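Internal tracking record. Fields below are filled automatically when a chain is submitted to the structure queue. Please do not edit lines marked as system-generated. If the sequence contains nonstandard residues, flag them in the REMARKS field before resubmitting.
Queue: standard
Priority: normal
Entity type: single polypeptide chain
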Amino acid sequence: QVQLVESGGGLVQAGDSLTLSCAASGGTFSSYAMGWFRQAPGKERDFVVGISRSGDNPYYAGSVKGRFTISRVNAKNTVYLHMNSLKPEDTALYYCAADTSYVAIAAGAPSTWGQGTQVTVSS
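SYSTEM-GENERATED OUTPUT FOLLOWS
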């Protein structure tokens, strides 16, 4: 079973950029589709973006499309979330997730979650 550890969160101002990282261990990273989700205070956890095992076909939520970019480096067992033009409504706890099925990622039902990293965007 793969384990996931997110990093890179912090406090930024609106319009700034931030890159989150998710390091995987304990499994064959290239066997997993990956995704990022987020949960704002008092709200449910939402899908942000998913990426296939090979890095093809990223799928973005409409609220972040054009501003966020997902990438993965299988040789480093790491997936990244590059966030540009951040808005206060992007404030949330960001979770990395993994599953052998890309469908499970897109459906919001991955088998493995990280512990989350906080992103706070001030106006």
